[in-house]
Amino acid sequence: MSKVFDYEEVAKHNTAESCWVILYGSVWDVTSFLPSHPGGSKIILQLAGTDATEEYDPIHPPGTLEESLPSSAKLGTIDPDTLPKTETAPADDDPTDTGPPPLEDLLNLDDIEEAATKQLSRKAWAYYFSASDDLATKSHNNTAYRQILLRPRIFRDCTHCSTATTLLGHSVNIPIYVAPAAMARLAHPDGEAGIAAACARFGAVQVVSNNASQTPEQIVAGAAEGQVFGWQLYVQTERAKSEAMLARIAKLPAYKFLVLTLDAPVPGKREHDERSKNIGANLPIRSSVQEGSASTTSPDPEAASAKEIPAPTGGVGKALFAGTAPDLTWATTLPWLEKHTTLPIVLKGIQTHEDAYIASRHPQVKAIVLSNHGGRAMDTAPPAVHTLLEIRKYCPDVFERVEVWVDGGIKRGTDVVKALCLGAKAVGVGRAALFGLGAGGQQGVERVLEILKAETETAMRLLGVERVEELGLQHINTRRVEQEIYDGPANLEGPSLWEKASTAIKAKL
Amino acid sequence: MSKVFDYEEVAKHNTAESCWVILYGSVWDVTSFLPSHPGGSKIILQLAGTDATEEYDPIHPPGTLEESLPSSAKLGTIDPDTLPKTETAPADDDPTDTGPPPLEDLLNLDDIEEAATKQLSRKAWAYYFSASDDLATKSHNNTAYRQILLRPRIFRDCTHCSTATTLLGHSVNIPIYVAPAAMARLAHPDGEAGIAAACARFGAVQVVSNNASQTPEQIVAGAAEGQVFGWQLYVQTERAKSEAMLARIAKLPAYKFLVLTLDAPVPGKREHDERSKNIGANLPIRSSVQEGSASTTSPDPEAASAKEIPAPTGGVGKALFAGTAPDLTWATTLPWLEKHTTLPIVLKGIQTHEDAYIASRHPQVKAIVLSNHGGRAMDTAPPAVHTLLEIRKYCPDVFERVEVWVDGGIKRGTDVVKALCLGAKAVGVGRAALFGLGAGGQQGVERVLEILKAETETAMRLLGVERVEELGLQHINTRRVEQEIYDGPANLEGPSLWEKASTAIKAKL
Amino acid sequence: MSKVFDYEEVAKHNTAESCWVILYGSVWDVTSFLPSHPGGSKIILQLAGTDATEEYDPIHPPGTLEESLPSSAKLGTIDPDTLPKTETAPADDDPTDTGPPPLEDLLNLDDIEEAATKQLSRKAWAYYFSASDDLATKSHNNTAYRQILLRPRIFRDCTHCSTATTLLGHSVNIPIYVAPAAMARLAHPDGEAGIAAACARFGAVQVVSNNASQTPEQIVAGAAEGQVFGWQLYVQTERAKSEAMLARIAKLPAYKFLVLTLDAPVPGKREHDERSKNIGANLPIRSSVQEGSASTTSPDPEAASAKEIPAPTGGVGKALFAGTAPDLTWATTLPWLEKHTTLPIVLKGIQTHEDAYIASRHPQVKAIVLSNHGGRAMDTAPPAVHTLLEIRKYCPDVFERVEVWVDGGIKRGTDVVKALCLGAKAVGVGRAALFGLGAGGQQGVERVLEILKAETETAMRLLGVERVEELGLQHINTRRVEQEIYDGPANLEGPSLWEKASTAIKAKL
Amino acid sequence: MSKVFDYEEVAKHNTAESCWVILYGSVWDVTSFLPSHPGGSKIILQLAGTDATEEYDPIHPPGTLEESLPSSAKLGTIDPDTLPKTETAPADDDPTDTGPPPLEDLLNLDDIEEAATKQLSRKAWAYYFSASDDLATKSHNNTAYRQILLRPRIFRDCTHCSTATTLLGHSVNIPIYVAPAAMARLAHPDGEAGIAAACARFGAVQVVSNNASQTPEQIVAGAAEGQVFGWQLYVQTERAKSEAMLARIAKLPAYKFLVLTLDAPVPGKREHDERSKNIGANLPIRSSVQEGSASTTSPDPEAASAKEIPAPTGGVGKALFAGTAPDLTWATTLPWLEKHTTLPIVLKGIQTHEDAYIASRHPQVKAIVLSNHGGRAMDTAPPAVHTLLEIRKYCPDVFERVEVWVDGGIKRGTDVVKALCLGAKAVGVGRAALFGLGAGGQQGVERVLEILKAETETAMRLLGVERVEELGLQHINTRRVEQEIYDGPANLEGPSLWEKASTAIKAKL
């Protein structure tokens, strides 16, 4: 029988010499673990002597404690009556608020975000909302859609309308998927499994984040018959860990494809996230997909976060980058990956026509995702709309060779339709799903999908289109965006890099 | 002699089991009618046990009650002394307001809208003001005019200036008509007949909405000698109803042409309207032009409104769409229509040069209206200015084959003049007329027409133009807009749809 | 000896039956004059029974009373002790203001306007500030300059810099002139003569408004040796009046040229001005240059103001337009004018290259002024910068045939320099001079000229230019504006009007 | 032993007849010096009878007093207990502020500026912040970078990343240098030497201002081994002074090159600076690099400030311009300079491709700096991004003949990378360094460099680039800016000036 502690006793052990924390009602002595904590000892010490459950829970998947600490570290249980009262301050703390509005009153994705902003903790909000530098690309991702006009046709029978399509050969009900975004439980206890349940209801694909806050097994445990999942992969510097994860995913048939994320080999600079660090947003976390206590990831929805400004010596920054491999190349990574998986490969993070071209010449690549990481990697990177138009301009056969997916900036069904008109096979929503989760758990995600589906159908009907395959360039006016698309002839430096690259590739093929 | 009820008694019958309402001083038992109410029972139940006259009156034309309910449902009359006092809250409820300003102090259409906003109920305002999604097209409709510059000429004798012109062969005093907009009595008791009286005074054409809040007969009852009306037609799924309406209109010689509305086969998503639903804006209504109690329309100024996000099962949404036919086509609808009317046909809702081209090849079409439904159907649809320029660019002979009218975004006489310079024969104002009605009834509509006429004359004089026929491309600079017009060569999908369509048409002719 | 009245006695005569007013300390019975007052009786009746001096004085030149009324109408004098105290509310009535700042603290023309706004009466401010409709052209006049970039050169000896140039053969010290703007005494008692004194100090040309608030003789009475004035002419419907005025000007050798204003044959719609009507801004006025009591002008700085929305019958509007001739033409007006003056003729109000071309083919025209009447005539008319570029594009030899002056939107010396680079020989400032007058009388106007001259010199030096003649297209980058210039080929209506016109002209020559 | 004065005694000597001031605890009689003070006597008289140390110190380098006054003028010392308490009001005086935030919490250059704004005196802030006229060019300098998009590449090994490069043959660790900006001690006592220490830590070049607030010797006294400095030169009207300075610099081997500033032959009009004159910002100053008491410069970071609006007679303005030579030319200045220095020459202030072309044809010119003086000279001058693109368009071989540096508008590492992609060899930061100094002295400057270096590395890695030499046009999309670049064919004035100039030059070579 375990010993019962008073909070007053625990509170005394708040130093590096003797560091106790309360987790899920138990008292743990983590003193010996301090030096090996992936995110450094400082973060634990900030919580030393307190109940750290609230901070710990949403960012550590089940089993983390047991994997990391010997059973002897569990000293006993806490007397709950001795715990101080806690207060949680939501991001938008308006005393006149009287709880969240009913989901049915949230009419669009902005409403959803607003409602979630009032529900989420400040740190979760900062984590989801943030993007690089001045948020120029995050904003441009959306405004690029708004610059495109739609061309409604008349006298078209729009009695019937279907958003059904196929992705990598799998039938789906909507051309909208949930993009990989980390740590869903920061938003709501329903977590990634809640997103999965919502996707099941709408026949939508879900790409699970490499840094999910639930295990890959938990997320697909309740999957519907035929429900399709993708698994997002960040290649680890220690390739063996990535290989082990690939083996683990191989045992879960719900995962139908791999999404290799390439748009954040190093973290962007997300200042909203940075500024909330004192309230915990930057707590390095133990993702569900890491094997062993030494691996480290951070609370980026997709990639490893990091202290943005490494000290000139580079010490701290280097430590935090540990884990995610920055050395991927066309020549080495895809061959390695093929050895360890039989799943179709999707490359995420294409931002130029050159890379789209090269990818389309690699037979093992079945789809590419035009993405700038939701504006969280390079600020002033082009929005997916630009890359779609660039591919159209320079190498349109890419659309015939691989499926082209896009993410970033989708807020309306008209945005979905515009992407499809430009050649996209599917559009991903990341923040919207997380804000849906924040606004109402699984039901909130369903509301997001319901809104987007209905808006997409209305737009299709008004265009006089019955099936998504019919959508094409004749339905849109892109004049305003075309004037801003990369224009090769301005490149005066000789043959562009992609030409050299494609020559090399062709030589290989 | 009818029984007299106390309000307290009526108030008890507020359930689906026993549902009474007070209408025009009478007490009705509508329990048996609940299942067949076009808008569903819920809306009636919200008013169960109360005096529903204020909500009912402005959106149901005379005769609706008698058509829908047996005389036995009329239980008696209410003792007016027992009624509770009611309060009406205008849209802009500023306690410092001291009533509306004199109409002569309203100098432009923005002033008119501002004054109306203070007079209208919140639900009427939301209904008139709203447009789809983010209001991008509603705004663009106006800003597209402002991007065009006028080119005043000197040394022109501008002693005389006439805005007179002809529409479909009928002489009119101004090239401005009142576009079809539903439910005028929401704005003011003068209703559509008040608009008619104002039009008479200015020699302007009025196109009466399919969903008017007065009967077609009432509206033209006081028509002036030679006054010209058009009738707007939404084709009903039950064609027989539309045919009956055509027969009814045929008996009213004031109606000189038919306007077939095509730009809203399904309703757009109007969130301002949605958000006011709890105060009644979305009450499904019994329009004056529907035959029989089963038909349903809704309070869209032009088309059927609907709950925007159909439940995934589609049940509610489908029910609300009922009535307006979504299956119109070039091949079937025009031949059918010709069988049932001898009036000239105007097609409203053209938004591409392709559809303008096709329409101009149908001999029975005498005019087309370039319209995006006031921004209420597809958001990010092109403004009429774009479509005018598109036609000029691709198929300018359209202007010689049919009259081209435009609506949407007109706020100034300079806007009117610009549309005419681009080839429009007339411009329609919808919201402006309704806001005029809201600001001052018939006199408010007159003020709108007076302002636009005077501004148009001033602009013509400063251009050195005496008659509207003289206005042409030499009077405007459209460089800024031209750069945003749809540009065919971007269509990489093979021959454009209109080419195929026109080939098919030509084969027929 | 005249009778002395108490204010109480005068105050009783406040009706159309007996209407007295106090003017300059005298009591006048104006009852019999009411029907013939140019602006209608209503305006006088608003002041009936009161001391109207403050409203009357700034807008009636000396001699008006005596011309209009018989001496018997002067009943006597007022006992000043019986007058009520008056309050004047400035346009920007901030109780924390402690008087105007010293002129030397006003660093730019915005400062000057801000200071003047606090000094001027609301009605004077509205009158000067207002422009047509939405003020789009007033704003564009300035932003068009800001869209042009300057191209500073290095290693140029800028020890010396001279802004001197010639206008119509007369030497001037700066290429900046004061444009004709009416009723300067509304701003300050120094009036037009104060502007003249300021111009003398800076060697600047002044074009005196047709509707000046001082007589032509008064204005030039203190002229410096060699000081150059122009006289602005609005042709009156009664040509004899204009002819008399030309004869009067001919006797004043300081007036070296005539400026025939053509950009406002009818008044624009200036709503700021309209809205201040209740406080007197629209008082029809007795301009110094009208002969006889029947002529009417209004307080437009340049042209006749009018109630913007004529009643449908047109009665009131027509009455107010009376006076200024709307029937000027190339064929009739210039020949008539040549008969009645020997002065060089300047045509003001050119807004298209067509009219510039035609004007340049008329040998009696020595200069043209590209002007849209300060944005007060046609809203969305092109700024002078556009017309300059249009002429460069279509008919650059205009610059060799006539002097091209511009006005509108000048706020900085860089604006002056840009206009000169584009080919302008001089730039006019209208509102700036009036605001200078409002901010500090003659010294305020001097401050305006001092600022513009210094800024112009700085800009010239930084461009490496010593004399204004050296300024050219190589010193500016107009890419952003060029994209918005009228583009002939868009004119699909056959040969443009100017071609026809020039053919006709050439046939004559 | 010196006499000790009470403050009360000193305070009596506050007139032109007897003028004492306290400086560094000593009491000086400066009565006889009043007429010869470079900035005029008025400025001293404002401080007469007070402790002027605070105003005097940051803008006068050591030795100034001793040079200017005889030792007899030092009357004695002040009894410090008698001095009144002083208060200093920072620029942004928010009583809720609780001191500056830790430097590590300042995440970007905007944060740095905000923190500095709260630390700096109003006059120092105005002096650093100000730019010409409407600040259009200051703003454009930055927004031009934001209009350029970056093109991240995938599958690039970004393990290694180096910002090292060479400038004029000298190895540096970052392609960012501190641009010459005057009077650093206004911001912080660390002054220019503090900037030098920060540069040493980051391996950055510092260009020392001609108007530094420390002597050239002091600034390089603590230089690190191999640290590189440049010396900014304004040529004085009295060439002998400039020659003496060149001789002095020649003795300090840390100065490796000369930067001849050409973009401000006359001062721009900086109104923020003007408006703060009453609190001392415009105090004419005794720069460290002037020899003898008669020379005058002013507190422009780079050039001589001046009363912007010279009196019409030009007297005051002329006096203040004294010192800096406005008569530099290609033909005379470079040959003269070559006689007096052996250092490589850098020309600063190129704003057109013509001048870049000419400079590149002068063999003694080793680098050019595209600069508009931080927007402080000509307003609406082009940003460096424009000039880079202009050179690319007209005469790209300039990049092969000379090093091209840029300054102005740099706020982000992405801005740095964009400039390098366009061909710049290095980018300078002026205000950022001064605001860093203001925010935290030497450490603040280090923070600025740390942020820019880290952001630059992140941007390089996301582009897939390891060394700065690899950056090229293929990494950027400049479509939006290209549309605004000067376009030769618009020059209709015959052969452009640069052609003539280059012909002349070629003839010489």
From TrEMBL, chains A, B, C, D:
It comes from the Eukaryota. The keyword Translocase does not apply. Residues 285-299 have a biased composition (Polar residues). SUPFAM superfamilies: Cytochrome b5-like heme/steroid binding domain (SSF55856), FMN-linked oxidoreductases (SSF51395). Residues 101-481 form the FMN hydroxy acid dehydrogenase domain. The keyword Ligase does not apply. Homotetramer. This is L-lactate dehydrogenase (cytochrome). It comes from Coniosporium apollinis (strain CBS 100218) (Rock-inhabiting black yeast).
